[in-house]
Amino acid sequence: MTGKGRLALVVGSGDLVPQAIEAARAAGWEVRVLSLHERDDLAAENPFQIKVSRPDQVLREIRAFKATHVCAVGGFHMSDRERETFAEFAGDREARSRGDGKLSQLGSALLKMLGLPFIGVHEIVRDLLAPEGVIGAVTSDDDLLRVMNFAFDAVRRAGTFDLGQALVVAGQRVIATEDIAGTDELLHRCAALRQRGLIGDGRATLVLAKSSKPGQPLHVDMPAVGPQTIAGAIEAGIVAIVVEAGRTLMINREEMVARADAAGIALFGIAARDG
């Protein structure tokens, strides 16, 4: 996206955050950083420290900055109490912990209260989205393609229950799904299962699948993969990673693909067929 404006950048964890800040300024945006987590690498930005228990302060800061647009980037982690507080402030009268999909919808509703458009980080940082088909140098045979399609369909179904955005399969069997700890922890769990001899000792190939949840707003909490994902995949014995084409962020893409190629891990993008 080109054009100038005042961008309130709500940031979480991860390497994409400083890249997004730099890209936004290079494109002509005036940027105000609001951070959900304390980050030493952002000290020069003097970020507004978000307290999820006080969403009214976040809205007040965005108004004070006179933002014209809002963008969220990075990983976001909230406790049950924080989720409940946020949901109640956004007008959800069912005071219980909400899943990520529901919270992203509530976040969109809050921004509508401000009258501000929400833009995706992929509109700021170029060439972030995963393409369809083979990514990298490692190709897949028909058997592996069948497993990847099974894994992708499974992660899409899991998304309808507002579960995580990733899972791992062994052949035609789902062996682990992402929880609130994220994809890195999912891969650590799979590595532990492999060390115990529970997976990865037969002919069934291990495949990681990542996808957005059906109906999920694409301007917040998009699935992402990067070099750290490849490191975890190597530890877990993953032979292929399948992602949702056009809706998955590829962080530090060149480094990630190079690491996957070196490890013999196939990367593949599939376009969702169910919205």
Distance between the first and last residues' Cα: 24 Å
Alpha plus pi helix count: 8
Fold-level CATH name of the largest domain: Cytidine Deaminase, domain 2
Strand content: 15-25%
Sketch the topology as an H/E string, one letter per element: EHEEHEHHEEHEEHEEHEEHE
Domain LpxI C-terminal: 131-267
Domain LpxI N-terminal: 6-128
Organism: Pelagibacterium lacus
Pfam family, one: LpxI_N
Folded structure, characterized:
The protein is an alpha/beta fold and 275 residues long. It has 2 domains: 6-123, Rossmann fold (3-Layer(aba) Sandwich); 133-270, LpxI C-terminal catalytic domain (Cytidine Deaminase, domain 2, 3-Layer(aba) Sandwich). The chain has 8 helices and 13 strands. The chain has helices at 16-26, 55-65, 80-89, 100-114, 142-159, 183-195, 227-236, 253-263, and strands at residues 6-11, 30-35, 48-49, 69-73, 118-119, 133-135, 166-170, 173-177, 206-210, 224-225, 240-244, 249-250, 266-270. The strands form 3 sheets. The protein has a 6-stranded mixed β-sheet, with helices on both faces. Strand 1 (6-11), helix 1 and strand 2 form a beta-alpha-beta unit. Helix 7 runs parallel beside helix 8.
